[in-house]
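anyone seen this seq b4? input:
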Amino acid sequence: MQQIWRIYNSTPWGNSKDYQDQVRLRRDVVRMKRELAGISAQDDFARWAKLRRQHDKAMEEYDQKVAAVNASRSSFDVKATAIRWTCTRGLQMGLQFWNSKTPIFTYPRGWFPWQVEWVLGFPRCPYGGVSINVWSSVCSIVIALVGELIGYAFRYVQEIRSRQPQQAQKTKAT
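predicted toks r here
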């Protein structure tokens, strides 16, 4: 989401000016803070006081810009989340609703008991067919299981590879 936010800020309709001002003000505040740390308030009070006033003013402007950018970021996050949900889950739910009476594929009647046929056709698919809802649920489960299996395989291979140099060092030591 952070990358999308940066891309949005670089567009003309984004709030790139506020974001750039915030970055500039942050640099100025940090620079002034370093200068303040390098000046002794007792030795050069006039210069220290002037720099302190500039620092306080820049800090106030920075806080205002941060509040404006955070409000804009919050609004952007809500909109981006809604768009992302609509393009993924919303589309899936729309397809499931639209095609709920159409079977994804059919099988001969009587292959399964009527209870199993009812579950395969849930919620509105006719007997002898597999509904899009059941099919998408099964596909999601299979994809998750295959993803887990691939993750376990990668971890296993990494573990085996990390053991090989240790075993080679043990054989050299003996």
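Residues 45-98 form the longest helix (54 residues). Residues 114-173 form one domain. kinda curious what u guys think
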